[in-house]
Specification:
- There is one protein chain.
- The protein is mainly alpha-helical.
- It has a single domain, classed as Orthogonal Bundle (Non-ribosomal Peptide Synthetase Peptidyl Carrier Protein, Chain A), CATH 1.10.1200.10.
- About 60% of the residues lie in helices and about 0% in strands.
- The chain is built from 5 helices and no strands.
- Helix 1 crosses helix 5.
Length: about 90
């Protein structure tokens, strides 16, 4: 059984993924927008794959269309991870 991640763990993983696309860790803050970071739709697909592989969270293109900041993405992934792996 998978362990439910903490919000800090999700934030660390998503920040690491985004920095692998080019932005620095200092740039990847919750209020940063995808445009400010130079994140394109292919990067968002990669983030969705990471969410699926690491947390069992399924994200669709529409999910990311509704998200404009890093913080919103972290909140959504963490929330869905909580639903996917409820505490025992």
């Amino acid at each position: 059984m998978a362990i439910t991640p903490t919000k800090d763990q999700v934030q660390e993983r998503i920040t690491a993924a985004i920095t692998s696309f080019g932005p620095t860790t200092n740039q990847v803050v919750p209020e940063a927008t995808w445009g400010q970071l130079g994140i394109d739709s292919l990067h968002l697909v990669e983030l969705a794959e990471i969410a699926s592989e690491d947390y069992g969270v399924q994200l669709q293109g529409q999910d990311f269309e509704d998200l404009t900041t890093v913080g919103e993405a972290i909140d959504l992934i963490w929330s869905r991870a909580q639903s996917a792996h409820p505490a025992n």
